[in-house]
Known about the structure:
Layout: H1 4-7, H2 20-34, H3 41-55, H4 61-70, H5 72-79, H6 84-96, H7 103-116, H8 118-126, H9 129-135, H10 152-163, H11 175-180, E1 204-206, E2 209-211, H12 215-224, H13 228-236, H14 240-251
Antiparallel strand pairs: 1-2
Helix pairs in contact: 3-4, 4-8, 6-7, 7-8
Amino acid sequence: MTSIDELLIKEITVSRQSPGEERQAALHRIYAQVLERQPYGFERKQLAKIEAEFLRNKIGVKRFLRELGHSEVYLNEFYYNSSNPKFIELCFKHFIGRAPSDQAEMHRYCDILMRQGVKVMITALLDSEDYSKHFGCFTVPHAWSGHSYPSPRTFWETEVLLQELHGRRGWIVPTMTWHDLQLNCDGGSCGLPGASMHSGQPSQTTAGAPRAISGAEALHQVLSTMGPQDLEVFAATLSATERDKLRHLLMQPAR
């Protein structure tokens, strides 16, 4: 596995004195960091105003990040199809350069997201002490160097998160949760230890025959491992639409 230090690339800092080519390089890096790709053509049209302001030195890195995070381009890609905890984990990856340090930090930002909305939550990340300490107003966010992490656990969670392909482990369960529950979430769905899922792999056997596990069954397995307090916390992070989807899945009969 590639380490964080190997994934780190040259730091890009942009000030009002930076020439146009440096700002263009910074723009490319910001998209790679925050969108995990470059924008599509139709998305460029939506971002044209803030792009032009950034390239003409009218706004800096931090202001551009805030506008990008608040944009429909970012929200369509990461927010609308995600659970709140998974979205917050991705925001930490994109804007802070590390995974959330613990459940307390996750819950703090979940509370901001639920009570004040997604734009306030993203702004809170950009106004945080960690962002200011590591990136200031002029540096494009990136993964932290190894000695900077609050704990070895956060370092490890960040390594996993940095190598997680976009959407590969689904949009519901954040990595810290599936690690805590010892779940296998490769391929977009979560199962208990020892159960291989997707990619044509057998997950369970009945009378020696491999059987694929359904989404409803996997969800039942995940929820059955959680205590009442954990279930309450998880339920509190879901929107009304997400709760309806969850209720529908749980009503599906097990095979």
